[in-house]
Fold this sequence. Notes:
The structure is a single chain. By secondary structure, this protein is an alpha+beta fold. It has two domains: about 1-135; about 145-235, Arc Repressor Mutant, subunit A. It has eight helices and six strands, in the order ββββββαααααααα. It has helices at about 110, 120-135, 145-155, 160-165, 170-185, 185-205, 210-215, 225-235, and strands spanning about 1-5, 15-35, 40-45, 50-55, 60-75, 95-100. It has a six-stranded antiparallel β-sheet with strand order 1-2-5-3-4-6, with no helix packed on it. Strand 3 and strand 4 form a beta hairpin. The longest helix is centred in the C-terminal third of the chain and has 18 residues, at about 185-205. The mean pLDDT is about 90.
Amino acid sequence: xxxxxxxxxxxxxxxxxxxxxxxxxxxxxxxxxxxxxxxxxxxxxxxxxxxxxxxxxxxxxxxxxxxxxxxxxxxxxxxxxxxxxxxxxxxxxxxxxxxxxxxxxxxxxxxxxxxxxxxxxxxxxxxxxxxxxxxxxxxxxxxxxxxxxxxxxxxxxxxxxxxxxxxxxxxxxxxxxxxxxxxxxxxxxxxxxxxxxxxxxxxxxxxxxxxxxxxxxxxxxxxxxxxxxxxxxxxxxxxxx
Length: 241
């Protein structure tokens, strides 16, 4: 069971969602986690382990589990975690890093005081209140990178990097360097992931048209290009997803 929970409105600029996931497998199950351009903080509350930062992913991740699994997570909006940590986000890319090994506004009480024995809703409420208490300590977000992300989303990943840099009032080199530090991946890679996410939603909508027309409508050169991107980012064909 996977459930999403909205953050407090004052945190919505930084956090996309809280989420909880529970499952039990009598036999080993494999799941694929697809890249979404976001950074998560995840902890397993059935093991009461310390939280970990899971950095921006550049391709799919396959996980296997057996028995009971119970997780909660904080999914930050692209760039949102930069308000909470002094570490460049690209240091977490495609990695899993213990939260308290990094310089951030989180202290060890965050892990020690979690009410493990209570319900998932109570734990998420604790996390939400903890983050609200840290609002005065947050670093300001880079408005230019925030604006650049909005341009990529509005274009559904179909906008050139020089145009974004110009609109964000940065040189191309400055823009790419700042974007990498704040988002964890290059603007080109982020655009590809966002185009992939948009195409998946387009396919899920059930619009009945050829794969070639879908590819062109979603900004790919042709259906072969779309298939190549899906294999690279998800390990699957569009029809399999």
